[in-house]
Structure formats: C-alpha cells, structure tokens
C-alpha cells in the first residue's frame, strides 16, 4: 500500500475483526488504556526515585567511584538478563501477570537499596531492582500494543510521554523529601508506596490476555524484528548521547558555561515530552511514515545545529529539534513490533526493549571512545549520519 497513513492503527482492516468494531468506544478498552497509562507513570516514577538516592547509598556502603560504577552495572546486567525472560512469560501468561508479579516485587526493592550494609548485598539488590523494573517495562509495552490494537487508534506516544512525566515527578518528589530532611529510607518508602498505589489501581483495568501454549520460551530476533531492534537502538543511542555527552559538547564549543550546561538536556527532554503528548494525534493525522521521515530530518537538523551553531540560542534550538525529532520513533517501532507476524509480538517487543536498553547502557561509552579518537563534534556528526538509516527504512516499518 502506498498510503502510509493507512498503515497506522487508525486504519480499518477488514481482516482484523477488532478494528472493525470501533465505531463506539469499548468501556473495557477505555479502562485498559487508563490502567496502562498508570503503569507507565508508576514505572517512570519509581525509576527516577532512585537517582536522588544514589549519593546516600554510595556513602552508606563506602564505595569509591570505580566500585560504585561497577555496582551500577549490576542494575543494567539484571535488566538485560530479565527482559527476554519477561517477554517469554508475557507471551505465555499474559502481560498483566508479569506486570503484577514484577511490579509488586520491584516496589520494596527501592527502600531496600537504601538499607544494604555492604557492596555485595547492594550489588545483588541493584540486579534484582533492574530485573523487576525492566520486566515491567517490557510487559507494559506488550500490553500497550494490545490495547492500541483493540482501540484501533494510536496511544503509544502518549504512554511514553506519561513515563517521562512520571520520571520528572519521581525525581522531583524524592529530591523535595530529602531536602526536607527525611531519612533516605523513609523517603524511598514513601516513593515506593506511591508507585505501589498506582500499580494496584492499574491492575484492576489491565486486560487479562494469555498467550498460546505453543509460544516458545525464547526466540532469536529475525527478519523485520532485527530491523526494528536496530532502529530502536539508534533512537535510544541518540537519547543516551544527549544525556551523557550533550552538555559536554556545549561546553567544548563554549556555548554554555559549566554551571548551566544541563540546560541543553532540559530543553531536549522537555521537547521530547511535548512531542509525545501530541504524538498520537500527529500520527493519526499524518501517518507513521510522515512522522518517521519528518522526525528523522528534524533530529539530524538539530544535531547539525549543535555542531555548527555560533551562539547559544541556536544551540538550544538544536537540542529542541533533536528532542522533537526522536520523540515518537520508539513508540512507532513498538507498534510495528505488535503488527509483525515473523515472531510472537511479546518476544519481538522484548527484543526491541533489550536492544534499546543495551544502546542506552553501552552506546554513550562507544561514543566516548570515538570522541577520544576524533572529537565530540565529529562523533555527533557521525551520529546524525547513522540517524539517516531510519528514514531509509521507514517504508519497511510502516508497511507492516
């Protein structure tokens, strides 16, 4: 089909009986959509509650910078090991079961992190926290794809926006409690309780779907799923680069002072949230192909501004353009993973999530080595060229 808008979840497909029944909102699907929003918000909230606690936890166990860096790798290691398993379990038992089990298991881990007396126990707790947290991440995206399919309209961008809103809220709430003098363990307990309340409310509305008994426990990504995983990895890599290296690029180019270098990432993050809040409506009107093409070009233009802008306002515009450009790519890739028929959707989404998380973990380190060999500006220029793989592959993604 040449009209890419017809490939969006808003299109009517006679072969899909669910899509044909969407003349009136289904109350169950409406409840499920709100429940999924609550899960995304709660997951972003508890994830960011951890960040303000890091200095207190580091001091408690007496770890130096290198040791604590290894401890943080435990968080990522637990996540990477658990995500494929979460996809397999969601395929067999349903996403709701995984969200319930992993979500309620991750909640007590947050205050436990503040109580661990030594490095080894903290490493184990971080691995479990990462495993439970990212199992919920995989399962909630699987559930979101199913809700989007039944609703026959785009919802994925708005869900990812709520994750970001939850992240801002969690970090802000935790910082305020710590500034007010609450003990880290008490502040973590209150933050975990808030996330638990949202999860418990959400569980009542989540769909009770189950996978087939013949669903494999594991499947290597193949075909178009490999393409979706690679493209998601590129998008996540841009996010990681902006987080870890964007401020340093602004300092290197003398566009922002050291004290205000974080302003660039704030602009980038705000642009991403704004774009995702309106992303579902844009995708419904313009189609996924247009959003991927336009978003890619915006992101490339934004990075070009960061590299070449002679003064600060233009550089900040570059941060904003990059954020607007990449914001809705990953939601589109998750939606496409739910439509493909090469492998079970739950396993495909787990593959994409794992690849994306690996990109966030390892990508900035790779960029650091590249910057050491060349320069940050050259490295960001190469990143912009890699981004062009997304518009080159847009038709294959939107034809699913």
TrEMBL record:
Gene3D superfamilies documented for this protein: MFS general substrate transporter like domains
TM region positions: 38-56, 68-86, 119-140, 161-180, 186-207, 219-238, 258-279, 291-311, 317-334, 346-370, 376-397
Pfam family, one: MFS_1
Segments of this protein annotated with the region Disordered: 1-24
Cross-referenced InterPro entries: MFS, MFS_trans_sf, MFS_Transporter
Bias (Low complexity) ranges: 7-19
Keyword set, alphabetical order: Membrane, Transmembrane, Transmembrane helix
GO molecular function: transmembrane transporter activity
Subcellular location: Membrane
Membrane topology: Multi-pass membrane protein
Keyword set includes Chloroplast: no
A cellular-component GO term for this protein: membrane
Protein name, UniProt field: Inner membrane protein YbjJ
Record organism: Pseudooceanicola marinus
């Amino acid at each position: 089909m040449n009209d890419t808008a017809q490939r969006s979840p808003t299109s009517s497909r006679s072969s899909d009986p669910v899509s044909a029944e969407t003349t009136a909102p289904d109350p169950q699907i409406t409840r499920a959509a709100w429940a999924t929003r609550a899960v995304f918000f709660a997951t972003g909230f508890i994830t960011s509650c951890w960040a303000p606690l890091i200095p207190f936890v580091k001091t408690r166990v007496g770890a130096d910078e290198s040791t604590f860096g290894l401890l943080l790798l435990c968080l990522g290691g637990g996540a990477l090991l658990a995500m494929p398993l979460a996809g397999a379990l969601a395929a067999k038992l349903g996403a709701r079961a995984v969200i319930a089990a992993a979500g309620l298991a991750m909640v007590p881990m947050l205050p436990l992190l503040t109580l661990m007396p030594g490095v080894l126990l903290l490493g184990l707790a971080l691995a479990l926290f990462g495993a439970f947290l990212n199992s919920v991440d995989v399962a909630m995206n699987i559930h979101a794809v199913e809700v989007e399919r039944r609703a026959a309209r785009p919802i994925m961008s708005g869900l990812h926006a709520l994750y970001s809103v939850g992240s801002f809220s969690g970090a802000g709430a935790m910082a305020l409690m710590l500034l007010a003098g609450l003990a880290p363990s008490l502040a973590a307990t209150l933050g975990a309780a808030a996330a638990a309340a949202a999860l418990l409310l959400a569980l009542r509305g989540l769909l009770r779907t189950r996978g087939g008994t013949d669903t494999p426990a594991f499947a290597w990504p193949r075909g178009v799923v490999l393409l979706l995983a690679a493209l998601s990895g590129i998008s996540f890599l841009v996010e990681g680069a902006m987080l870890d290296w964007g401020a340093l690029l602004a300092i290197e180019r003398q566009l922002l002072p050291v004290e205000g270098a974080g302003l660039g990432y704030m602009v980038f993050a705000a642009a991403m949230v704004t774009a995702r809040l309106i992303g579902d409506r844009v995708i419904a009107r313009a189609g996924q192909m247009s959003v991927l093409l336009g978003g890619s070009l915006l992101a490339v233009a934004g990075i070009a501004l960061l590299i070449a802008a002679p003064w600060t306002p233009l550089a900040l515009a570059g941060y904003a353009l990059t954020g607007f450009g990449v914001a809705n790519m990953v939601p589109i890739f998750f939606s496409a993973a739910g439509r493909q028929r090469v492998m079970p959707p739950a396993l495909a989404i787990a593959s994409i999530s794992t690849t994306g998380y690996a990109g966030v973990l390892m990508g900035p380190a790779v960029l650091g080595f590249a910057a050491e060999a060349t320069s940050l500006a050259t490295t960001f220029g190469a990143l912009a060229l890699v981004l062009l793989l997304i518009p080159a592959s847009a038709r294959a993604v939107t034809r699913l």
